[in-house]
């Protein structure tokens, strides 16, 4: 009954790592290019729920916008904008906050984890998933690509949509989480392949950033933890380190795992790492160049983001006008 609409939010954390790219942003670009209706929102209002540095945040918003554009998010096909530019997000957040309960928010795992990291827990951190629901519902999104750790937040958004529809009349679709579950989309830490690659990893050598120089990428892959067998095979269970490299190699070249492994039969791990590094560098080169290109043209980016915000605002205002009408506001 509802037209298919994809909503993705991403925090402006600065540059992305290879895991974010292969597991999240590239799939969004694929949806966009398959003619899905895709909205990508840089969720800066979410970023202030933890202690932050204002000049750094502003810079990170630009770096994130440049990175998304460089990865192929196309403002002519998708809606790309910064959350705080569309006031309706904060306003709808307030309205939705009366449709759920404190115990329900208190038991969400992300709140429990993050609230442990700060002495005085900000109210914003607590309400965070309500704002996330507002983001999704303002655009009547039907599908939300997320990592597994966000599943409970999507369930909260579903609960808020059901509660709203029940009280005030059928207005919102119940969104579905799209969880990228394939082994292939999971990129592991280069230093500890029992964990996923993550920006919160204390060891920067474990993570490949899209903005890393070719030399740095080669160094990181050269030092990637593998095992004591020198041939190349794909056995994620027994040989997670080597298999992670094979997987990354296959993802960036578009070759199957089998063809990657077949071509590597004569190589030992050291030589193979050089080949993987070349393939990763080759794939990321145009992205890195595009990031730099966009960052040197800030006014163009500001313009693109404002056009995106204008598109988003029109939908958001329509939704919120209807909501206020139904609530007697
Ligand atoms: P991080 O773990 O670096 O903090 P986030 O939790 O912000 O990353 O995730 C942002 C998006 O990137 C999510 O959709 C998540 O599933 C995806 N993602 C994060 N790390 C990886 C990874 N190592 N492999 C594949 N996808 C990932
Ligand atoms: Na995370």
Structure description:
This protein is mostly helical. The protein folds into two domains: 5-184 and 298-327, HUPs (Rossmann fold); 188-291, Tyrosyl-Transfer RNA Synthetase. It has 13 helices and five strands. The protein has helices spanning 18-33, 44-47, 54-71, 88-97, 102-106, 109-115, 123-138, 151-168, 214-222, 240-253, 257-263, 269-295, 298-327, and strands at 5-10, 37-42, 79-82, 143-146, 176-179. The strands form two sheets. It has a three-stranded parallel beta sheet, with helices on both faces. Strand 4 (143-146), helix 8 (151-168) and strand 5 (176-179) form a beta-alpha-beta unit. Helix 4 (88-97) packs across helix 7 (123-138), helix 9 (214-222) packs antiparallel against helix 12 and helix 10 (240-253) packs across helix 12. The chain is globular, with a radius of gyration of 21 Å. Adenosine-5'-diphosphate (ADP) is lined by residues 19-20, 22-24, 146-147, 185-187, 196-200.
Model regions low in confidence, pLDDT < 50 over at least 5 residues: none
Described by the principal axes of the CA atoms, the overall outline is: globular
What letter string, H or E per element, gives the SSE order? EHEHHEHHHHEHEHHHHH
Let me know the number of strands.
5
CATH topology label of the largest domain: Rossmann fold
Q: Widest sheet: strand order?
A: 1-2-3
Main location: mitochondrion
Subcellular location: Mitochondrion matrix
GO cellular component, one term: mitochondrial matrix
Family: Belongs to the class-I aminoacyl-tRNA synthetase family.
